[in-house]
Amino acid sequence: MSKKVAVILSGCGVYDGAEIHESVIALLRLSQRGAQVQCFAPDIPQHHVINHLTGAESGESRNVLVESARIARGQIHDVRELKAADFDALVIPGGFGAAKNLCDFAFKGASCAVQPDVLAAARDFAAAHKPVGLICIAPAMAARIYGAGVHCTIGHDPDTAAKLTDMGAEHIDCAVDDIVEDPQRKLVTTPAYMLAKSLAEAASGINKLIDRVLELA
């Protein structure tokens, strides 16, 4: 029987939303493995909008759910509708949207908070002891979801790792093509574009993460 997997997106574009490469690689691998996938996103304004050509703020206002629908080809729901009982696993790609829209780690570091609807959904999976995959910077939310002692990785950037440690996480250095698993919590993390220099490098770890999440499910 195919596994049902929820994917939470954070917009569309590396600098202000979900990292498109990471999102598509994850969705592709889930499809290749025969999983049934439903995308979700919070129905909230983006923190800001970045012109991805110039890197400057555009001054526009955009909605995270509406922007995420670009990646999901319109097949997406408000994260408030996400219930762990309906799925076997959860995956959250990275991109600055994970640290700006799903939480405020990009601005507040170790004192960050996770967006309430996203936190409720993720904690639902944690409480149900169902596997979760966090990609790239998304593991910044791990300690808020699981509490102190959770094992995770963002690669090996010392400043970012120190902030996760300050939040109570046990950070483990990890290569771009590898994963870190917390067996007790069924949490799987991988650095992806925290380290990746190419699409192929990003895929090497993400594919391994998806495979392991499905095995745990």
UniProtKB/TrEMBL annotation:
Keyword Lyase part of the UniProt annotation: yes
Gene3D superfamilies: 3.40.50.880
GO molecular function per UniProt: lyase activity
Domain DJ-1/PfpI: residue ranges: 16-173
Family annotation (Pfam families): DJ-1_PfpI (PF01965)
Keywords for this protein: Lyase
Reactions that this protein is recorded to catalyse: glyoxal + H2O = glycolate + H(+)
NCBIfam families, A to Z: PRK11780.1
Protein family according to the UniProt entry: Belongs to the peptidase C56 family.
Protein role: Displays glyoxalase activity, catalyzing the conversion of glyoxal to glycolate.
Protein name per Swiss-Prot or TrEMBL: Glyoxalase
